[in-house]
Design brief:
This protein is an alpha+beta fold. The chain is 35% helix and 20% strand. It contains 19 helices and 23 strands. The longest helix is centred in the last third of the chain and has 19 residues. It is globular and about 105 Å long. The protein binds adenosine-5'-diphosphate and magnesium ion.
């Protein structure tokens, strides 16, 4: 039988390799920026069009390449950075595989212009899908410029797989920030579609971080420093009071390379133990230097994970260093490493005046009165207008339109089952013989909240159990979506406009969402490069919730995970609903429970949350009977 195995042609092999190296425009950005850093540049400019789908250009003033090297660099396994296997254990460059340029050239149109300092003339060459199409001598400034155009031009499936420009640009910014943070001595500029997004002059580490993340970052930072035989630690952690609900700015750099490490993240979180509000995440910007032979960066093709020789020691050192830093800045109350956090006085107690105990006498109390006065409705009506279903803010529209149908299910006068799968309420069964009319109504409308999580209500066939959080998400989601699409949400004016600061990546997202947010009821007085001024809010959003709400919405859009196939409005409505819905663990009054039930079943799709999880289940009397029959 004839042999059938063949060596793959280089351009095919390169295309295959490209699949590993280049997932999206941001991967190209990372490789080109790292090459520019490795070339010893002091100024690096990144120019991007259409989130990198049309153009990614990196211009540096580094050492440039000779004529021969400018061709060789596109060969696979062509690198100037290592020669021997041992070099792998003493790496001081970002690149070493010699794979990036070969991969990129296999799947894009690449133009290279480069000149070494000692040469008078430079080289200008073009390579498209691994084929050189032109090479000329040219007058060029010192350094190198790579332009990568039409990424994935020859792999339409990959091109179609790319996300929206917002999402792809977010990834570009992430890579840019990571490289820029690791090299504060190099100046970086980023242009997107002709406008300057970042201009980072060379400076110290702190200046670099503040330049990237915006003005108020400076006051957040607490320096971290430690020097041991196995690691040198520097950088900053954010004061606990600036912790956010989302994982925002969390960075580890090892030997000037950005890495991800859930294990070391845990060490940082352990250092903050007892200092953070529930579910909050601190920011950190931690730079570690370890002897190159004690790490193996060869694990992952895109190299954001590395293996340390002595991870446990690193964990312990990092944790105690950060604890110490927080303590030094008078942030941690005690420096006892095994302290019981439960015994600490909460922070904000420190500044409170002592409360003088007093005796409260209710002069109106009459022990002989038959009934205590009914709890006033006021307590419920006066609620902040916050994230709840309590206020009249939106229920009226539901009530007017749809509640009658729903209520009819409750009292059983004309049970229409169209909207609600097979729930019809118990009232049909209740005869008047044992109760007077009022009692019937009460017996029927009663809802119970159990474990501050579920609302239980009797229905004709048995009972319905509603998940309060998911139900509220559904209610808010439909409401926001309607406001966004109908564009007639009402706003509450703020007496004192809120100023909210964001970094430029976040600002880009907010700008993109602006219209949809305005349609939900937000009013923006100003839109600046690093902050916005909010002067009005949707009626069902409380002032205290705004910053967390926007933070979570931005975060959701950055993460792009849930249903990115849906429209922007849909994603914003979902995200706002998720952020504002009552949490599990919130106690609801009877009235609130009732409003929730009514509003849920007035929804278009009451049976699932916006994230496609069931909002309620029913348990039939037969089910109950069966269980009792055991
Ligand atoms: P690696 O970075 O792993 O060596 P690359 O494919 O990224 O592999 O680059 C191949 C070679 O091209 C590098 O080793 C370097 O010698 C050269 N090179 C790439 N970019 C530049 C640049 N901006 N300036 C000077 N030389 C460069
Ligand atoms: Mg490289």
């Amino acid at each position: 039988m004839s042999s059938i195995i063949q060596l793959l042609p280089d351009h095919v092999a390169n295309q295959i390799a490209a699949g590993e190296v280049v997932q999206r425009p941001a991967s190209v950005v990372k490789e080109l920026l790292e090459n520019a850093v490795d070339a010893g540049s002091t100024e690096i400019k990144l120019i991007v069009k259409d989130a990198g789908k049309t153009l990614i250009q990196v211009i540096d003033n580094g050492k440039g390449m000779s004529v021969t090297d400018s061709r060789l660099c596109f060969e696979r396994h062509a690198t100037s950075k290592i020669r021997h296997a041992e070099d792998l254990f003493a790496l001081h460059t970002k690149g070493f595989r010699g794979e990036a340029l070969a991969s990129i050239a296999a799947i894009a149109h690449v133009e290279l212009k480069t000149r070494q300092e000692q040469d008078e003339l430079g080289t200008h060459l073009v390579i498209e899908g691994s084929k050189f199409t032109s090479q000329e001598v040219a007058v060029l400034p010192k350094g190198t410029s790579f332009s990568v155009k039409n990424l994935f031009f020859n792999i339409p499936a990959r091109r179609n797989f790319l996300k929206s420009d917002t999402v792809e640009f977010r990834h570009v910014i992430d890579e840019f920030e990571r490289v820029a943070m690791a090299h504060h001595n190099i100046s970086f500029v980023l242009y997107h579609n002709g406008s300057e997004m970042f201009n980072l002059p060379s400076g110290n580490q702190r200046q670099r971080i503040v330049n990237i993340f915006g003005g108020r970052t400076n006051e957040k930072l607490v320096p971290v420093k430690e020097s041991t035989e196995i690691v040198q630690i520097g950088g900053f952690v954010a004061k606990p009071e600036f912790a956010k609900k989302s994982r925002g700015e969390q960075f580890f750099f090892v030997n000037n390379r950005f890495i991800k490490s859930p294990y070391l993240h845990h060490a940082v979180m352990a250092a903050y133990e007892g200092l953070l509000k529930d579910g909050c995440q601190p920011g950190y910007y931690i730079y570690m230097d370890v002897p190159p032979h004690t790490i193996d960066i060869n694990i992952h093709p895109t190299k954001t994970e590395i293996k340390f020789d002595d991870e446990h020691a690193l964990y312990a050192i990092l944790r105690s260093t950060i604890k110490h830093a927080l303590g030094q800045f008078n942030i941690a109350p005690v420096l006892d490493f095994d302290r019981d956090a439960n015994l600490d006085t909460p922070y904000d107690y420190e500044k409170r005046d002592a409360v003088i105990p007093g005796v409260v006498v209710d002069r109106n109390y009459n022990p002989f009165a038959e009934e205590s006065p009914v709890k006033s409705e006021g307590s419920f009506a006066s609620s902040s207008g916050g994230n709840s279903f309590r206020g009249d803010s939106y229920t009226p529209s539901f009530k007017k339109e749809r509640q009658p149908a729903w209520e009819s299910l409750y009292v059983g006068t004309s049970p229409s089952r169209e909207d609600i799968a097979d729930i019809s309420f118990e009232s049909e069964e209740v005869t008047g013989s044992l109760f007077n009319d009022n009692e019937v109504m009460e017996a029927v409308q009663r809802t119970y909240q159990i474990h501050k999580k579920y609302i239980v209500s009797p229905i004709k066939s048995g009972m319905v159990i509603i998940d309060q959080k998911r139900a509220h998400q559904r209610i808010l989601y439909e409401q926001f979506l309607r406001n966004i699409t109908v564009q007639q949400a009402s706003s509450q004016q703020l007496l004192f406009p809120l100023v909210l600061h964001y970094n430029s990546g976040e600002m880009a997202i907010i700008r993109e969402m602006q219209e949809a947010l305005v349609n939900t009821g937000f009013v923006f007085a100003e839109f600046n490069s690093d902050h916005i001024v909010v002067s009005g809010l949707p009626v069902n959003v409380a002032e205290s919730e705004v910053s967390i709400l926007l933070e979570e919405v931005i975060n959701d859009l950055q993460q792009e995970v849930p249903d990115s196939s849906f429209s922007q409005s849909d994603r914003i409505a979902k995200s706002m609903a998720r952020s504002l819905a009552v949490r599990t663990g919130t106690l609801l009054t009877e009235k609130e429970q009732e409003n929730m039930v009514n509003a849920l079943f007035a929804c278009k799709e009451p049976d699932v949350s916006p994230f496609n999880k069931p909002t309620f289940i029913t348990v039939s009397v037969e089910d109950l009977d069966k269980r009792f029959a055991l």
